[in-house]
Amino acid sequence: MRVSSAGFLSLMFLGAPLAAQDAGGPLSAIDWLSESVATPAVAGTAPPSHTIDEPPVTEAGGALPAKVTTSALDGPSPDGVGLIAPAVSGLPRDLWGAGLTHEIAERLVQHSDDGLPALRQLFLTILLAEVAAPVDAGGKGELLQVRIDKLLALGALEQAAALIQAAGTASPELFRRAFDVALLTGAEDRACESMASEPHLAPTLPARIFCLARSGDWDTAALTIRISKALNQITADQETLMSRFLDPDLYEGDPVPPAPNPVTPLDWMIYAAIGEPLPTEGLPIAFSYAELGPRAGWKAQVEAAERLTRAGTIPPNVILGLYTERDPAASGGVWDRVSAFQKFEAAISSGDAARVTATLPEAWARMQEAELEVPFATLFGKTLQELPLQGEAADIALRVGLLSPYVETVAKRRKPASAEEAFLLALAAGDPSLVLPPDSLGRAIATAFRDPAPSTEAKALLDGNRRGEAIIVAIDNIARGVEGDLRGVTEGLSTLRLAGLERVARRTALELMILERRG
Questions:
Q1: Which candidate, 161, 504, 154, places its Cα nearest to that of 312?
Q2: What is the 3-state secondary structure (H, E, C) of 117-135?
Q3: At a CB cut-off of 8 Å and minimum separation 6, what does 311 contact?
Q4: What Rg, from alpha-carbon coordinates, does the chain have?
Q5: In angstroms, rounded to a whole number, what is the distance separating the alpha carbons of residues 169 and 14?
Q6: Which of 57, 194, 267, 301 has its C-alpha lying 20 to 30 A from 279's C-alpha?
Q7: CB distance 182 to 36 below 8 Å
Q8: Which of 503, 516, 518, 416 shows the shortest CA–CA distance to 118?
Q9: Nearest 10 degrees: Cα torsion 279, 281, 282, 283
Q10: Nearest CA-CA partner of 473 in 178, 104, 74, 221
Q11: What is the pTM of this model?
Q12: Vertex 437, ends 434 and 439: CA angle to 5°?
């Protein structure tokens, strides 16, 4: 027999030992996840110990494993679950090779969230790729959870939700993540229904009250608050906040309890429901998803979409739709970007080369301001190559084309007008070593294509059959190069090429030359 959401939650309130939610210590690798379900200390699968703010891994032990580890080969491992097949990702199925789970996880956790667009996409691909589990995985799913947590930290909510679904398990730790994704993407009713359909998941008090209210069972929700307060299971501020959530009119004019630190998605939803929405600026990027929907104002939607588009976690068409949704309400900041984008989009839709020539420079400058050049190139790179542009607009169109998915076509059709363009076109064609580099950055790039020289750490990882970790080191080396250490550029690009990622190395090199990301 299947009980209703309200009935199930009421039964759980009466029968579940609330102390269980604190018995196991930290429940999450991310401190802002909602306490949506209680996790007993005897849970079947313990969460990994890796936290998002772990200190960096030292190089003291060298790059190779300290010992040989074996694991059973029969049966699939949750750590091998992925959304992108090797034929699509370009990554080998044995990406982790001889690497150990703990060391791989630490590299994923400590990896910076910033970086060039091509490298951000590469890192997301690593997190989502379908590859063999590490040799010591043992079917525990620890690396899977670390990958999901990193996706959440990067703001890739839809991808994280899909990975959780692909894993096909309903552990409390994975459910907590799915619950929060549902809250932030406007699917809170589905989250509550899922909680009610999983009897082994013990909802925590805030989640019970929230879901009872969402289901319309206000009386049971109010009773739950009163009993919880009588048993000292919630604080006075929690009682006030949850009571206000049930009946905001009773508290009109009263001060709102201060927001907790950190704010969880459930906190954010409750404050929004009582008419006191918390700004997502300053919160983890995942919260930006909550402002993509119609319940947020247009300006908030645009700014949220800009953050997520810049992170590479939503497609460029989302920002295209929002930028062109209505006329800008004011000037300055985001409104200037909207205005410039609309004028350019109208010009390019008309096919009038003169209008595009007049509007492209301002639109490009605004996209540079928001670091949205690559999404802009994805949207318009091909069309710009088909127009007879002149002067500054023609120069910009070339760079937009080289940042677009049509880079090879652009390289074949365009003749260089300067030494810098000659180098860019040679780089797009795959052999920049044949052209004189225009500056010190170009020389660092050309060296990687002429005579690849990875860092000592990356070479040891490649030699030790730990290609995935070597790729992460390469990404970090290039990030160091962007900050001014050009040796990192040479080492990182060299490693990508030796790891079989030639196309990624070219795109990264083009972004290094075209985008203004130098420290």
A1: 154
A2: HHHHHHHHHHHHECCCCCC
A3: 113, 120, 154, 155, 156, 285
A4: 26
A5: 26
A6: 194
A7: no
A8: 503
A9: 70
A10: 104
A11: 0.86
A12: 175
User: Strands (DSSP E) along 252-363, which ranges?
Assistant: none
What dihedral do alpha carbons 411, 88, 169, 180 form, nearest 10°? 10
Query: Residue 202: what pLDDT?
Result: 82
Q: What sections of 257-333 are H helices per DSSP?
A: 265-273, 298-311, 316-323
| Beta pairing partners, 84 | 129
Count of alpha carbons within 13 Å of 317, Cβ hemisphere only?
Answer: 0
The predicted-structure confidence for 145-171, as pLDDT tens digits, reads as follows 999 999 999 999 999 999 999 998 778
H helices present in 329-414, as ranges: 334-350, 353-369, 373-384, 391-402, 407-413
Rounding to the nearest 10 degrees, give the CA dihedral for residues 135, 138, 141, 144: 0
How many other C-beta atoms can be found within 10 angstroms of the C-beta atom of residue 434? 12
Q: Which residues of 53-86 are buried (b: 16+ CB within 10 A; e: fewer)?
A: eeeeeeeeeebebeeeeeeeeeeebbbbbbbbeb
* CA–CA dist 464, 338 (Å, integer): 50
Contact present, 195 and 179 (Cβ < 8 Å): yes
Confidence of residue 39 (pLDDT cuts 50, 70, 90): low
Euclidean distance between CA atoms 201 and 40, whole angstroms? 10
**pLDDT at residue number 171:** 85
DSSP symbols for 454-480: --HHHHHHHHTT-HHHHHHHHHHHHHH
pLDDT at 68 exceeding the cut of 60: no
Q: Which residues pair with 202 in a beta bridge?
A: 38
Question: Are the C-beta atoms of residues 508 and 499 closer than 8 Å to each other?
Answer: no
Each domain of the chain, given as residue ranges in start order, spans 23-64+78-203, 295-414
237, amino acid identity: D
Ranges 217-231, 257-271, 356-370, most confident: 356-370
In 3D space, the residue among 368, 367, 378 whose CA is nearest the CA of residue 342 turns out to be: 367
pLDDT of residue 257: 86
The token pair at 311 is 């992170």
Find out whether 100 and 69 touch, Cβ atoms under 8 Å: yes
Q: What is the dihedral of CA 409, 411, 414, 417, to 10 degrees?
A: 160
